[in-house]
Design goal:
The protein is an alpha/beta fold and about 350 residues long. It has 2 domains: about 10-175, Rossmann fold (3-Layer(aba) Sandwich), CATH 3.40.50; about 180-350, Dehydroquinate synthase-like, alpha domain (Up-down Bundle). The chain has 12 helices and 9 strands. The strands form 2 sheets. The chain has a 6-stranded parallel sheet with strand order 1-9-6-4-2-3. A 3-stranded mixed sheet has the order 5-8-7. Helix 3 (about 70-85) crosses helix 4 (about 95-110), helix 5 (about 180-200) runs parallel beside helix 9 and helix 11 (about 300-320) packs antiparallel against helix 12. The longest helix is centred in the middle third of the chain and has 23 residues, at about 205-230. The radius of gyration is 20 Å and the shape is globular. The two termini are about 25 Å apart. Bound molecules: nicotinamide-adenine-dinucleotide (NAD) and zinc ion.
């Protein structure tokens, strides 16, 4: 066996209305609750906040997190936590609130200085107890040891270190049924890209991250369209949330690469949604990597259809975001299908020219 290292993610609680159980996972005392204004307006956080209040955790709500959260927002969240004497942190929302919660919890708990912990495996201190509740499916941030913050000049910097892995992640699909179609599509593509990049990663790829990435791909590509077209389809929402989580676990161990590297500057500079920036870059990177990664693309026949479905989703993400009122047009699927079918057939052909079964 090739040697490899695998880091598990947080403990997991999944199911309808599980967000009301979060108090059980936190110590007694004041809690910093990091979210965004939209989620407060929608009333999505109410049951969780009520459960915390009833349990005596007295949440201090910080709801000023914007998409692609800035350093100033992170610092304001830390200040709110310090003023409240928070002994624990909850991140409730998409990747943006969860990333702020993770790093705020770490800096409050460790007392470290932010500029000394950017990068991989530099942060080594202790964070405050942390529970993450995703409302998009998604970044998988609830599963990862990563926090991405937009700094001066629109540059996205990350802290990627084991202490940022949450104690608990709570997957409650009911929270995602109101996600607008454009956000469903864009965040779903982000999750798919995590799985694709983990599965084809040149670094640290290993059997466990492969298994997680492949199951994530199956769940995500099999349910993205349904989640977009039938927002209240709870089975599809469940599959998307679980798929995004598994993809997060996969890329925590076999890192994302070209698509994200090219997508981050677009997000930081132009504030395009993270999933849309990935959608814009995915096809180009797949094509660029096709020689090096074709065995991975070709390994299973059914991945062809999954990849075709990805492109369907990419097209949909762009269209749903750019033209939210238009009916989804799936024309690129056929074109991409032809391209994908031609690649792995070449790749799978042995030198004799006979195709493998
Ligand atoms: N930490 C990681 O491992 C990781 C991985 C990928 C991306 N990211 C980061 O995550 C951020 C993007 O996160 P995101 O794509 O989840 O988006 P987001 O958190 O920025 O949210 C996007 C929008 O969706 C809304 N929204 C969220 N949940 C909703 C719901 N249930 N119903 C209705 N509206 C809802 C939000 O209010 C917001 O307006 C970026 O900053 C990106 O860099 C982090
Ligand atoms: Zn991503």
């Amino acid at each position: 066996m090739r040697s490899f290292t695998f880091h598990p993610g947080p403990r997991l609680s999944a199911g309808a209305d599980k967000s009301t159980d979060i108090a059980e996972f936190l110590p007694e005392g004041p809690c910093l609750f990091v979210t965004d204004e939209q989620l407060i307006k929608l009333g999505l956080a109410e049951p969780a906040l009520e459960a915390l209040e009833v349990s005596g955790r007295h949440p201090t709500v910080f709801d000023k997190v914007e998409a692609d959260p800035s350093r100033a927002t992170l610092e304001a969240a830390i200040e709110a936590g310090r003023a409240a004497g928070a002994v624990s942190v909850v991140g409730f929302g998409g990747g943006s609130p969860m990333d702020v919660a993770k790093l705020a919890g770490y800096l409050l708990g460790s007392g470290d200085v932010l500029d000394e912990v950017w990068g991989v495996d530099i942060a080594k201190g202790r964070r405050l107890p942390l529970v993450l509740v995703p409302t998009t499916a998604g970044t998988g941030s609830e599963a990862t040891p990563i926090s991405v913050i937009t700094c001066e000049g629109g540059v996205k910097l990350a802290v990627n270190a084991r202490p940022l892995t949450a104690d608990w992640a709570v997957l409650d699909p009911q929270l995602t049924v109101g996600l607008p179609r454009g956000v469903t599509a864009a965040t779903g593509i982000d999750a798919i890209v995590h799985a694709v990049e983990a599965y084809t990663s040149a670094r640290l790829k290993n059997p466990l991250s492969d298994a997680l990435a492949r199951e994530a791909l199956r769940l995500l590509t099999g349910n993205l369209m349904t989640a977009c077209e039938e927002p209240r389809n709870i089975a599809a929402r469940e599959a998307m949330l679980l798929g995004a989580h598994l993809a997060g676990l996969a890329f925590s161990n076999a890192p994302v690469a070209g698509v994200h590297a090219l997508a981050y500057p677009l997000g930081g500079l132009h504030h395009l949604p993270h999933g849309v920036t990935n959608a814009l870059m995915l096809r180009h990177v797949l094509q660029h990597n096709s020689e090096a990664a074709r065995e991975h693309y070709a390994r299973e026949r059914k991945h062809l259809d999954e990849l075709a479905t990805i492109e369907h989703g990419v097209a949909m993400a762009r269209r749903a975001w750019l033209e939210p009122d238009r009916v989804i047009n799936t024309w690129p699927t056929a074109r991409f299908l032809n391209w994908v079918r031609s690649r792995p057939r070449d790749a799978a052909a042995p030198r004799s020219g006979r195709r493998r079964s």
